[in-house]
């Protein structure tokens, strides 16, 4: 009963567009990106590390030819680093330079009260937008043509910061006490990523479209390796991807992700291998296995795994 | 479509997916954006707007498959889909029966004998029309509010009355009294009536499967935390397990945040002056006092004799679901001899570990004196001012030595000794219960017979684990 509709066409275009930019995605991912643009809602991307969550934002910004503004979250991140800061230095400098002007301006006033009165009439002066240093969030709101705002690893930030994000996520605006509310000129496409080290709050989830990216199926991973490592031979590529999938079935502390598959492919290409054999695997295992005991366990299973991919 | 989407959201909600009004609106927008033509597209669109965690997404996928199998939403293939009543009409199902089913009877029976609409439709094999009538009747009778299996009979009667089965019965009776042709018609109608009955039952049961089962489950899950743990049966364990995990996750996330809490507003003068040295002694960088919270160390000692077993099971389950926030938890079980089961829990899955512990060490009368002596021999040295000791038992020592002295030894060293008693407070001190004497060597004594109370205990362990 599948029919061509504007939506499914647009999604297909989006999918091939992302693919042209080097990001191989499936129907689900493309649908979510499409919806995010259609409904003007942020995307919350979850999934194990190394499956291309950050890459999605980068590819999307490339495809839409919008600037990518990135905010890396960490514990202790606060408004001053995420949203805006006053340019203290500039404020100080200006007061110094303008000292005489101020003297003239205040000439003839009697007493502190009158001087204050006159200063009040001057307006905000040093707390205006000229002295505002925009940080990623404000930058994204101020960008003329729109932007892709990547809020990376939001689970690493404190819970309070999450609450602070809510206003931006739902209304595309922020309140700055000294100036007022700044709304987006053009709503940016917001992508949040999370590795689930901490449970993300219900309120934040509710404002986003949820997308879970898991390890790709074998066919898609082949495509990814092909786009990312163009020089690799078909034979090696198929073996390599099958081998990594074999490893993922084992019980390990950290399973090799897509980024590791790509690294491994590059390594093997550099070593001029054209097929996998036990020796090459053992020598290059440290590229995909990042824990000592995992590496040992896999090294023991190499003959088995190799036998299975043949 | 709007009504269908609302029904679907009700199904999701009762299956445990939390969906707010804002998300319902998003869902509508999403459907508007992708249209209804492509089922996969619709699933992705609704999935991303309505389900907000991967667990919810799994539930969503299951519900979607079940729900939209019955609720054909493709406007092109079924004309009924236009009106909200047509949502339940299962066009595909109708067609299969139409071709092979009771249609054949109509050759010998002449439809012109039939008077009521239903009879005529039956004789002509117009099942699509009949299905639409059933669906419309169901809508009027509020079948999507069906709450349990016990209502099946009522709904079937109501539906068959609504589509006019009674009139048809009267007609069959009239035709049977007539000539041969009329009798043949009656026979055909009688056969059609059987099929119709099946169809009605199908319709009602489908709705029970969709709406009632989750509803019942939700009620049960709401009630479970308040039930006495000792009254629970085997069949509740899976649900309890899930509840325990959910509670543990909630507590863990609340308390892991508190571990980093700083006490804002209290100036740390020493550190402020120190950091001011760089700015000529001007206290440029105020430093605040930090509150340090240590992770609590918990040692649990559980009576697993028959009377307390059920509570012990869930206490152990709870403690070990909290491993992330309370690493280094040790657990001991006893009837008369004390055994450490910490390792058991590290090696095995929770449920099997609990079962093994109870099977291996349980089923004996309890003797508190021996148990506490062995316990204090085993780990008194490890108990220090950071350790909380949780004892679970009914303090019924069968008139033997209750071991109050040993407990006092532990009391003097530990940060806290909490005694959990699954018996209601009124029974403490009666018969062989030594609870009042035991209480003198505890910092805190709590009754603990429901999951809710258990949750409060673990919460307080974490809150005071500084």
Can you describe this structure?
The complex is a heterodimer of chains A (310) and B (466). With 310 residues, chain A is α/β, with parallel strands linked by helices. Chain A has three domains: 27-81 and 135-212, Rossmann fold (3-Layer(aba) Sandwich), CATH 3.40.50; 87-131, no CATH class; 218-300. Helix content of chain A is 53%, strand content 12%. In chain A, the strands form three sheets. Chain A has a five-stranded parallel beta sheet, with helices on both faces. In chain A, strands 3-4 form a two-stranded antiparallel ribbon. In chain A, a hairpin with a 3-residue loop joins β6 (173-176) and β7 (180-183). Chain B has 466 residues and is of the alpha/beta class. Chain B has two domains: 2-220, no CATH class; 297-463, Rossmann fold, CATH 3.40.50. In chain B, 55% of the residues lie in helices and 9% in strands. Chain B contains 19 helices and eight strands. Chain B has helices at residues 2-14, 21-34, 39-50, 54-70, 91-100, 117-124, 127-141, 152-163, 165-176, 180-223, 237-258, 269-276, 309-321, 342-347, 350-361, 368-379, 404-413, 435-439, 451-463; strands at residues 262-267, 288-290, 297-303, 330-334, 338-340, 387-392, 416-421, 444-447. In chain B, the strands form two sheets. Chain B has a six-stranded mixed beta sheet with strand order 5-4-3-6-7-8. Chain B has a two-stranded antiparallel ribbon with strand order 1-2. The chains are: A alpha/beta (310), B alpha/beta (466). Chains A and B meet through α1, α2, α10 and β9 of A and α2, α3 and α11 of B.
């Amino acid at each position: 009963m599948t029919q061509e509709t504007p939506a499914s066409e647009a999604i297909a275009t989006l999918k091939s567009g992302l693919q042209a930019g080097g990001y191989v995605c499936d129907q689900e991912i493309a649908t979510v990106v499409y919806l995010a643009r259609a409904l003007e809602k942020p995307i919350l991307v979850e999934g194990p590390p190394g499956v291309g969550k950050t890459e999605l934002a980068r590819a999307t910004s490339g495809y839409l030819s919008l600037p990518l503004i990135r905010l890396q979250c960490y514990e202790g991140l606060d408004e001053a680093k995420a949203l805006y800061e006053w340019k203290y230095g500039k404020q100080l400098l200006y007061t110094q330079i303008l000292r005489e002007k101020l003297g003239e301006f205040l000439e003839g006033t009697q007493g502190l009260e009158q001087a204050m009165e006159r200063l009040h009439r001057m307006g905000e002066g040093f707390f205006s937008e000229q002295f505002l240093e925009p940080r990623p969030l404000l930058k994204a709101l101020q960008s003329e043509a729109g932007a892709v705002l990547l809020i990376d690893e939001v689970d690493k930030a404190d819970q309070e910061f999450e609450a602070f994000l809510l206003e931006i996520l739902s209304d595309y605006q922020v309140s700055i006490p000294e100036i007022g509310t700044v709304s987006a000129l053009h709503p940016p496409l917001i992508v949040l990523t999370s590795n689930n080290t901490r449970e993300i709050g219900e309120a934040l989830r509710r404002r986003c479209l949820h997308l879970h990216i898991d390890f790709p199926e074998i066919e898609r991973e082949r495509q990814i390796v092909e786009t990312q490592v163009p020089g690799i031979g078909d034979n090696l590529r198929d073996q390599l991807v099958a081998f990594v999938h074999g490893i993922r079935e084992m019980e390990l502390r950290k399973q090799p992700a897509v980024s590791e598959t790509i690294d491994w492919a590059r390594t093997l290409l550099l070593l001029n291998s054209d097929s996998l054999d036990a020796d090459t695997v053992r020598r290059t295992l440290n590229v995909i296995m990042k824990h000592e005991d995992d590496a040992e366990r896999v090294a023991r299973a190499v003959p088995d795994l190799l036998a299975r991919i043949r | 479509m709007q009504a269908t989407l609302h029904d679907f959201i009700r199904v999701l909600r009762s299956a445990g997916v939390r969906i707010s009004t804002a998300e319902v609106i998003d869902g509508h927008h999403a459907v508007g954006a992708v249209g209804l033509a492509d089922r996969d597209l619709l699933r992705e669109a609704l999935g991303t707007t309505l389900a907000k965690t991967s667990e919810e997404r799994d539930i969503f996928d299951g519900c979607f498959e079940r729900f939209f199998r019955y609720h054909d939403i493709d406007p092109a293939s079924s004309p009924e889909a236009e009106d909200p009543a047509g949502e339940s009409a299962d066009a595909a199902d109708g067609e299969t029966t139409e071709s092979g089913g009771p249609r054949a009877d109509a050759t010998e029976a002449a439809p012109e004998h039939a008077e009521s609409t239903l009879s005529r439709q039956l004789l002509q094999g117009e099942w699509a029309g009949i299905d639409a009538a059933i669906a419309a009747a169901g809508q009027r009778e509020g079948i999507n509010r069906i709450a349990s299996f016990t209502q099946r009979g009522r709904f079937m009667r109501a539906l068959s009355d609504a589509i006019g089965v009674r009139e048809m019965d009267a007609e069959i009776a009239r035709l049977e009294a007539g000539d041969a042709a009329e009798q043949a018609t009656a026979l055909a109608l009688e056969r059609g009536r059987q099929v119709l009955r099946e169809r009605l039952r199908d319709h009602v049961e489908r709705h029970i499967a969709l709406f009632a089962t989750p509803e019942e489950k939700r009620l049960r899950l709401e009630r479970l935390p308040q039930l006495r743990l000792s009254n629970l049966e085997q069949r509740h364990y899976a649900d309890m397990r899930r509840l325990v995990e959910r509670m543990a996750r909630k507590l863990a996330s609340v308390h892991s945040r508190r571990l980093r809490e700083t006490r804002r507003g209290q100036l740390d003068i020493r550190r402020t002056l120190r950091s001011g040295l760089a700015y000529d002694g001007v206290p440029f960088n105020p430093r605040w006092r930090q509150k340090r919270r240590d992770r609590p160390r918990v040692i649990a000692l559980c009576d697993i004799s028959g009377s307390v077993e059920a509570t012990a099971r869930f206490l152990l389950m709870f403690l070990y679901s909290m491993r992330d926030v309370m690493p280094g938890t040790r657990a001991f079980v006893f009837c008369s001899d004390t055994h450490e089961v910490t390792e058991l829990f590290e090696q095995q899955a929770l449920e099997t570990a609990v079962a093994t512990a109870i099977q291996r060490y349980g089923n004996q009368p309890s003797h508190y004196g021996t148990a506490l002596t062995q316990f204090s021999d085993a780990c008194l040295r490890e108990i220090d001012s950071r350790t909380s000791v949780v004892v679970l038992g009914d303090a019924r020592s069968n008139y033997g030595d209750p071991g109050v002295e040993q407990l006092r030894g532990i009391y003097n060293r530990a940060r806290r000794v909490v005694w959990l008693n699954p018996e209601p407070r009124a029974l403490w001190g009666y018969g062989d219960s030594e609870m009042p004497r035991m209480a003198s060597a505890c910092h805190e004594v709590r009754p603990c017979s429901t999951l809710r109370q258990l949750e409060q205990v673990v919460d307080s362990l974490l809150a005071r684990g500084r």
